[in-house]
Design a protein that fits this description.
alpha+beta; Lipocalin; seven-stranded antiparallel β-sheet; two-stranded antiparallel ribbon; 13 strands
Length: 260
Amino acid sequence: MQKITQLAAVSLALAMTLACGAPNPQPGAQPGATPPQGNAITTPADGTTGTPASTPGAEMRAPASSAPGTSHAPAASTRPPAPPAPVMMAMDVAAGTELRLILETPVSSETAKPEQSVRARVAEPVMLSGMTIISKGDLVTGTVVSAERAGRVKGRASVTLRFNRVVVADTPYTINTARIVRQAEATKSEDATKIGIAAGVGTAIGAMTGGKKGAAIGAGIGGGAGTGAVLATRGKEVTIPAGATLRTTIQETVKITAPM
C-alpha cells in the first residue's frame, strides 16, 4: 500500500512538471489557423472593437474637399484687351487735288512699253478738314501711257505715265490723275557742233592738198561726213529713276473712306 501511494505521488509530480513546461496556447487560436496579417482587426479582452493596424505606405489619402457653396472659377486671362476698331468716314477728294509721289519703278524711254505697270508711294499726306484722307506711304499704281525712243534725224525721247489706283487703309480706290511727261533734252546744238567740226577738218585737209579749191571741196566732204555721223547716232534717252519725286493732280472727284 505504501508503494502504491509513493507511485501515485511520483506520477502526480511528473504530470505537474510537464504541465508547467508546456507553452500556453494563444487565446482563440486553433491548430493550423493562419495568424492575422496586415490590417487585421483585433478584439481586446474588454470586448471593444480595435482600429485596423496601419501598414507603412498602405494609407490612402482622400482628396481635400471644397467648402460647401464654393466654386473653382478659371484663372483670369492675362491677354490685353483688343484695341477698339477705328471709326471710318467717307470723304470726297475733289478734282484738282495734288498728289506728290515717290517713284518705286524706274522707267526709261529705251526699254519701257505702253501699259507697263509702275508703282509709287505717297510722299505727302492729303489732308481734308483736318483729317488725313490719303496717308504718306500709301501705295499708288499706274501704267506707262507711251514711251518714245530718240530719233536718228529728229524727235526727242519721251516717257508718259499716269496713275489710276490708290490703296487707303487696305482698300483700293480708282483714281484718274493727270499725265506725267518727261522728255529728253534737244541735241540740235550738239549735232551742229559735230557737223561743223567735220566740215572744218575737211576744209583743212582740202587746203593742204589743193589750195582754195581744195578747201571748198574738203569742206563739203567734211560736212557730209559730219552729217552722216549725226544721222547714225540716236539722241539722248530719258530715264525716270526709282526714288524720283513726281507731281500730278487728281482729275475727277473720288470718295475715299478713311479712319477719323
